[in-house]
Give the backbone structure.
Amino acid sequence: MDDWLIDDDRLSIERKSVLPGEGFFTPDSFDAERDEREAREAIEGAGTVVVADPDADGLACVALLREARGEAALVPAGPHELDEAVGYLAEYLDEGADAFICDLCPDERDDLAGLDDLVERAGRVSWFDHHQWGEEHAERVREAGVELVVGDSDEECTADVTLRSLAYEFDDRFAELAAVTRDHDLWLQEDPRSDDLADYAHWEEPEAYVEVVREHGADLPDDVQAFLAERRVEKEALVEKAIDRAEIRDVDGVAVGVTYGRCSQNEVAEALREQGADASVIVKPAGSASLRGTDAFERCHEVAAQVNGGGHPKAAGCKPDVYDDMLDYAHHWTTHGAVAKQAIVDAFRRLPEESEASD
């Protein structure tokens, strides 16, 4: 494939909004070889290693660990990469080194396949999180000998959990960093700095982000603010495209805003909330989707759990299993995610009554 076909810089905003980024077109086998090589380089020889989701919450945990322990090698891993990351730790961690897993929750038992080998190899294994854990997974992790601390997903982000779980006296800027991170991660939207942290974590390399917030906390320096202002020109244009495509559907009495596009999901969801949506579904060109709730709908994690995902009551993510080959993806792009949208809307319809869910 010619590089120019997937070159983001040559695409109009309209086409960029419909198509996934360049990384989507890299084969998983190539990514897997690179990821394992980079993980091995980070893990070997390190006294402390942390596997973390490379968003603002996960990376804040890395900053806290580095401050408390003087070092913490980072292995970035998204929710669907947890099993590989645990396997890397089990294979490459130095005997007696400490391992931390932050801001990640196992969706399947296979995610924990390498956990016993890791515990046997490590000096200490700690797991800090705030997602919705199933009792079976929590019991499995604790029985393996892992220190598991799971915060209330309505009250804490994982940075909060890490801050209170480490035996270290942190400067005030780290408590403030956790609070501002929580504002975004729980979608409270009360501190404008939280959008800065979220955007910066998304656009910057993880190592650079960690070092900046470790030094400056939630108050990002001027050069970073200038970087954000420049990148937000395109971001806002992509958000507008997604808002323009949106429709609000009545799904068993719940007003669900549904749209498609490569965009920042929180801004789109907020616009749909202002238009009357109780919940929002933003389907992405790469096939995944973000779900956002409101005070009127706090069951996003239940919807996501039905379509290969999970998360929190007001914020969740998923990737419906509706893509068998590249023709399915071609259909996805040309129909603006029609099949994925329907799969998620159907998941809303399958929700049990509130009383049944409570029982």
Observations:
- The mean pLDDT is 94.
- The first helix runs from residue 13 to 18.
- The CA atoms of residues 14 and 241 lie 7 Å apart.
- The chain is about 50% helix and 15% strand.
